[in-house]
């Protein structure tokens, strides 16, 4: 393994800290319209600070933590793989586009939010058999939460990227 491919202690520490902060947000058990955008904000900040792989990693872990903490009710457990995929695409889109052309971060948030919505809502409508209230939580609120959290993360993400380089 080349030294460029190894994860540094600094990156690992940042990953652990950002995962802990994200899990702390979830454990506050605030209403979903507050928790959803905050978790999405943390996913974007994590991607900005530790890179796409780090953000995706946190995005893959948070749905499981939400299930274990009782934030995601047991009837939604079959949706977890789709939520994981949606989170991964959200972070990947932002991470891939944030450092690119002018407007890249905005495009990354918009594209990532749309992809996350399509995956999660598509699964809720076509693949999963869920009670209507549970399915409803996986539809439009997912898009709104991703957009709100992503937009709120843009300024701090820009600042943190500059600060930590």
Describe the protein in words.
The chain is mainly alpha-helical. The chain is 76% helix and 0% strand. The chain has seven helices and no strands. Helix 2 (32-50) packs parallel to helix 7 (140-163). The protein is globular. The chain starts with 8 loop residues before the first helix and ends with a helix.
Give a concise summary.
The chain is mostly helical and 165 residues long.
Brief descriptors of the model:
mainly alpha, 165 residues, 7 helices
How many E-type strands?
A: 0
| Series of secondary-structure elements, N-terminal to C-terminal | HHHHHHH
Low-confidence stretches are: none
State which percent range the strand residues make up: under 5%
Structural class computed from helices and strand pairing: mainly alpha
User: In DSSP terms, counting alpha (H) and pi (I) runs of 4 or more, how many helices?
Assistant: 7
Radius of gyration: 15 Å
